[in-house]
User: Fold this.
Amino acid sequence: MNGEQRRKQLIALLSDSKTPIAGSVLAQKLQVSRQVIVQDIALLRANGADILSASRGYLLMQPRQEASRVFKVVHSDAQTEEELTLIVDMGGTVRDVFVYHRAYGIVCGEMKIRSRRDIQDFMEKIRTGKSSLLKNVTAGYHYHTIAAEDTQTLDAIQEKLAEKGMLAKLQEDEPVDFWSRMQG
Assistant:
């Protein structure tokens, strides 16, 4: 087995493990010295692999999978901060805001709101700027793409928005798959 094949196998071994694997164990499985494993780990890292060196061995950091969902909401300008705070406090990230305008189609703005500090920065820009909230072009109705660690968190956010009276129902003329409509 050459070095490239060995490094692929090394990544496969690390990918299959949720706990650190000792360098000596990796060396034994791949039939090389521990020093070769150290060199291979360095090469893999140089090529972008996120490998953690722990006291008990090596661990491949898996990219975090997150769930996302589009929510249609409606509320007053005064409730904007409350809406965003509710989402963030429950573990959500507000990726964007968009409206479905009957003449212009989908108009979208990136938000990336993850914390109360992000909310304060956003609200300050609205208060001190000459721009108003995007939702105001559609009588308060707008959408947010919300990301969270899992669907249970999204379900909890949905319940809380409904409880606060901020969740709105889709109308028949609204596209359900917004993103494919935006693409083409």
About this structure: The longest helix spans residues 3-15.
